Each structure stands twice: as C-alpha cells, then as structure tokens.
Amino acid sequence: DHYVPSVVNHLISRSEFFTSYTPYQAEASQGTLTWMFEFQSLVCELTGMDVANASMYDGGSAIAEAMLMAHHVTNKPKVLVASSIHPNYKEIIETYKWAADIETLEIPQTDSGQTDKAFIKQHVDENLAGVLIQNPNFHGVIEDLSDIKSAIGDAMLCVSVHPLSMGILKSPGEFGADIVVSEGQVMGNAPNFGGPLVGFFAARGNYLRKMPGRISGKTEDQDGNVGYVMTLQTREQNIKRSKATSNICTNQALCALAATIHLAAIGRSGIKEIAELNVQKAHYLASKLTQIPNVSLKWPTPFFNEFVLELPQAAADVLDQLKERGILGGIDLGPYGDPNALLIAVTEKRTAEELDS
To answer: Alpha-carbon distance 327 to 325, whole Å?
Structure first.
C-alpha cells in the first residue's frame, strides 16, 4: 500500500488514456507509443539495463518469461531457482518449465536467509541456462548478488527486484545481471484487492531480439520530425510462429502508464526518499516488536521494508487477534511450512502512531 501522487489518477483517467487499447494501427497512436517509450527508458534507468519492453502482465509472468528467455538464448535445459522467490512466482515457473521442457533445481537458503551462493557454484555445468533470484526476496531479506555472474559464466543471471528498493540499493545491472524483472504495482497503482498488476522486463542490449512482449522505438522521418514506431513484437500473432520467442500479448498498458507518471512525478530524489522511509519505518517497527519477550527476527540480515518475525505461537492465532483490533498484521507463513513465522510489510504510508499501535 504505497503513496500514489494525485497526478497519477488525474492523468490516467483522461478518456484518451482510459479507453485506449492495444494500438493495432500503432503508428497512428503517437501518444501511446510516446509514453511506452518513456516507460521503457525509466525501467532501464531503474534497473541499470540497456533495453526494456513496454510491460508484462505481472511480476510472476515476467520472471517465468525470464527463465524462458535464458533457455532460448543459451539453448540449455537447466535453471537454478532460489527457494526464497515468491511462492506464487514459483508456481508460475513450474507451469512454464513443464511446457518448455526445462529442468529446474531449487537453491536453498543459508542460515542468514540469503540464497546459498556455494550451492550455485557447485551446480554450474555445461547444461546451465540461468539462475533466478529475487531481491529483496520473499522474506524481505536483501540478497548479496556479488560474484554470482562471474561464477555462472555464460549462463544468464535473472533478478526480480522491488522497484522502490532501487532508490537505495545498487541496481542488478551493476552486479552483471542479464535480465531484470519486477512487479510494478508499487509504482502508481493501488493494491485494488489484488490487481490488475504490471510487470517490468529489462535486459542487456545484445538480447534485444530474444525479449518477450513488444517495444516502442523512436525514429525520425525524412524531414527530421521525431516519430515513434512499434517494433520487435515477438508474439506469433505478429511474426512467423517459428520465430516467436513468446506469446505474451496485450501489455498492462494503463497500469504501466500509471507507473510512468508516478516515476516521472517523484523523480530521482523522490524514489530515494520513499525508499529511505520504507527502510526506516520497517526497522523502527522491527526493533519495537523484537522487544516483546520470545519474539525475534527470523534472520538477522539486512532487509528493505519486509521482515519475518519468529513467534512463540502460531502466527495465524496472532493475526486473528490483531484483526479483532482492526489491524492487518501481515502474512502467516504456516502454509509455506513455517507456522510460527509472520511476514510483515511496512510502507512509507504507515504513521508512527499506527506502528506504535
């Protein structure tokens, strides 16, 4: 539940944006292609990558498509998947890998909650297509991405990020990532009871023609006027089926537009300030809660705005009691095999009074 500047809803509610659909006569839709180009540019700046597409369905489809792309680029069958990736994302990955005949191997977590880099190094071989990691991971832990790319060689490093964390963390591009994906709901889109969502997808420039989705390009006509064109659409509806790299279809245009306006409105200093507020408020709450007897952080590792508490009783029972007091306390990790663990998120919108309560 993040701050959405009022300008976002004001602009996306304009009829020319709100009612627009996929531009089948693309070059006649210069306004749509312009903001798509700006969206791509902002995603590249955010992630430290060379090229980005004009959005995916959501973060889950984006990371699964990253796995497919690594498979297509390397023509190898094996992908290492961090166990700390969001469980919903892992279900999507399972579906995609079954259809594409990809073999996956789960990377365990260390005692610090981070992905086990020693395990990655042990499983690098001639069949490795790529490594999938989420940072911060599902449990909020900030991963150490250093040395992974150098360890896996020609295999592709694919990282799923929290966009707001990019305001203070080093970008995956600086760690040598080949593909960076994200769930962009936190940029300008309210929770909306769970959707719709918007996925970011960016990559190194030499993989441009292997990317899923579609890309808006900027050009000039013979008189020197700037124009925008739809280019490099990779789905089978647009090109020969044998050459299609993905069948990802209509992007989440209105949500991507909201993210574009949000990023443009808050700017470089704004995203840094929001990221710092998330860190400060999350650490404030964590420090207060761990003063309660028998309550502790599950992993004493740097985190962004989410953290896991180890409780002396079932998290589900605690959440029921909090709900009676009008508080949504977090996520019970019991269904994921850890009944006494509670995952808590704190955003810049939470006040000190709410956190104290």
So the answer is: 6
